[in-house]
Amino acid sequence: MMKRRQILYFGLGVAASCLAPSVQGQKVVPLSLTWLGHLSFFFQDGKRRILSHPFKSLGCTRGLPTPQRDSDLVMVSSSLLDEGFIDNIPDSVPILKQPGSYNLLGINFQGIRMAHDRVQGRRFGFNVAWRWQQAGLGILHLGGAAAPFLPEERILMGRPDILIVPVGGGAKAYDPQAAREAVMALSPKITIPVHYRSAQADPDNCDLQPLGDFLSLFPTISPTLLKTNTMTLTKGDLPQTMKIMVFREPESKNAPAKQVPPKRS
Fold first, then answer.
1. % pLDDT > 90, the chain
2. How far is residue 225's CA from residue 247's CA, in Å, rounded to a whole number?
3. CA 36, CA 51: separation in Å to the nearest integer?
4. What share of the chain has pLDDT > 70, as a percent?
5. Taking 60 as the threshold, does the pLDDT of residue 19 lie above it?
6. If you average pLDDT over residues 114-120, what whole number do you get?
7. In sequence order, what are the residues at sequence separation of 6 or more whose Cβ sits closer than 8 angstroms to the Cβ of residue 28?
């Protein structure tokens, strides 16, 4: 078996190559984001394909197919099975899983080390939040963030165009109130809530709260409910004021998922 290619640190600053626009000639290439469930996304602009946070189907991800996409790069935030299941990833595909700065695919990825629990990492270790720019859009995926930002973490995060934030709580990620505080501190253009109780979750083995508990904390913002689990946009599509985008739940292993509008209190 081919030995997995090692990812090396390049010692680059956040603002280095990540600012290169994604263009083919003079045409801006849009970014396609597909939510695969829980924390997992598939990002594609032109020929660059990035898979994030593949999981094993059990507990809170029961009923969802384990994410498998032809990818040029995979990123995870820890080795936990619900956000870092890489057994099915080909050995030839680079995997980012440690904090640091990496230059791959013409993109600079900044991995930011954070506690994965509320006791300074003593229970679940550490989470890696990932920041990068793709198709001219600044993306910050907080992974399984659980603790408030430290000053040095906040500096590295900057102000993202797109923020992907866990909101369902449990023992190893933000609860709705902590997620709201993170959103307000980062002030993104688009917020995408993830890591909440889905329709397919195992009721006996999932400690996450429903999405509505997070949305209720933004009484003046009406969430945009997408009809699919995919969104395509360019820099010019970004709103002037923050929008909360709710993706349709991915199809389960057995039947299409039903879109149930989240409850607002």
1. 62
2. 6
3. 9
4. 85
5. no
6. 85
7. 21, 22, 135, 136, 234, 235, 236
Instruction: For the chain, give the number of residues.
Output: 265
Pairing of strands 137-141, 126-134: antiparallel
**What φ, ψ does residue 157 adopt, rounded to 5°?**
-75, -30
Q: How far apart are CA 118 and CA 194, in angstroms?
A: 19
Residue position matching structure tokens 């209190």: 265
Record the tokens describing residue 234, joined without a space: 């360019």
Residue with tokens 């993306």: 139
State the DSSP string of 16-77.
Answer: SGGG---EETTEEPPEEEEEEETTEEEEEETTEEEEE----SSGGGTTSPPP----SEEE-S
The dihedral through the CA atoms of 12, 16, 22, 26 has a sign that is negative
The tokens for 78 are 């820890």
Is residue 27 predicted with pLDDT exceeding 90? no
